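Re: beginner question about structure tokens

> Can someone show what the tokenized structure looks like for a real chain? I only ever see the sequence side.

Sure, here's an example I had lying around. Input first:
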Amino acid sequence: MIHDLALYVAKEEFVAVDSHTSNIPEHTRHITVVENNSLDSGLFPKSKSLRTTLFPMKGVGLDSQTLLNTWISRYKYLRYLGLRDSSFDTLPNLIAKLEHLRVLNIINNRKIRRLPCSICKLHNLQVLRLIGCTELETSPRGLGMLISLRELYITTKQSVMSLTKFENLNHLQVLSFCDCENMKFLFSQAQRITSLEKLTILSCGSLESLPLFIFPKLQDLIISDC
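And the corresponding structure tokens:
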């Protein structure tokens, strides 16, 4: 009954896309894709009103670079771009055009190696999720330009994380490293991240150094399988 009520209230503003979906109304604002074989580019409206794209089902993601480019160039007012379990090679430089974006979720993309520098122009971005991107060679250059960032979750192949990338992230509250197998040193400099409240480090087996004194407001610390 609650589900039916939610569908009634949402009307056509929310659409769950599956193999039975034949049309997405122009005024749809939130799209969730639940089946891989439903990703026909002709389905998606040309209207710029879309605010959310989401892949909530495990194993269901986007593998079409062309469709991703279309979404990013067409839907300039996106607030939430959820690309979980996708397998595209790169984000287009056009990502910088999504100046209203609040959340970018690329969890479990096993192919992506680098993020474009243009991603750092997303000055309204609050949440960036890169956990499970096991081929990601390094965090974005210019990360400190994401001045609104509050939560960062990252998997990377780099061995040292420089604190200089974080020195301008004055609103960062949650930071998580997971499956960073090569990571030896976290933040070797003496600067502080004064806003951080929660730090999580999971499955970083090479870690040798972690200067906790640089987090004066830390409330939650989780270290597991290191």
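Each token stands for a local structural state, so reading them left to right follows the chain. The first strand starts at residue 14 and ends at 17.
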